[in-house]
């Protein structure tokens, strides 16, 4: 599956109305740990066809980041049926990312 860039405009359609599990990566272009995590998040999109992977640039979408209480990045949020079911903060190895999805 491809990675979807999320904004306030498409958030409801892409995340809240999604039928599948959604993994949201809150990141910033200047963030070192975000840059390290990004290829692993992209790999989740490739390896899990039943998971919708989305990314939110906190510098561009600060209101959306605030709604999720993002105070530090990278922050990953897993949602099902429009509700948060799991989350993590900071860099995670690939196996930890896979474990986040097992809710």
Task: Offer a quick outline of the entry.
This protein is 34% helix and 29% strand. The chain is of the alpha/beta class and 103 residues long.
Structure write-up:
- The structure is a single chain.
- A 5-stranded mixed beta sheet has the order 1-3-2-4-5.
- By secondary structure, the chain is α/β, with parallel strands linked by helices.
- It has one domain: Glutaredoxin, CATH 3.40.30.
- 28% of the residues are buried.
- The longest helix has 16 residues, at 32-47.
- The protein has 4 helices and 5 strands.
- It starts with a strand and ends with a helix.
- The model has no long low-confidence stretch (mean pLDDT 94).
Give the SSE string: EHEHEHEEH
Helix count, per DSSP?
Answer: 4
> What's the alpha carbon Rg, rounded to whole Å?
12 Å
CATH superfamily: Glutaredoxin
- Based on secondary structure, the structural category is alpha/beta
Q: Could you say what the CATH architecture is?
A: 3-Layer(aba) Sandwich
């Amino acid at each position: 599956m491809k990675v979807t860039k999320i904004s306030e405009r498409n958030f409801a359609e892409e995340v809240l109305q999604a039928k599948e599990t959604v993994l949201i990566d809150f990141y910033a272009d200047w963030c070192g740990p975000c840059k390290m995590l990004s290829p692993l998040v992209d790999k989740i999109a490739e390896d899990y066809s039943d998971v919708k992977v989305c990314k939110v640039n906190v510098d561009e979408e600060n209101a959306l980041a605030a709604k999720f209480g993002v105070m530090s990045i990278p922050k990953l949020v897993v949602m099902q049926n429009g509700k948060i079911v799991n989350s993590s903060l900071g860099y995670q190895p690939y196996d930890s990312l896979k474990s986040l999805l097992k809710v």
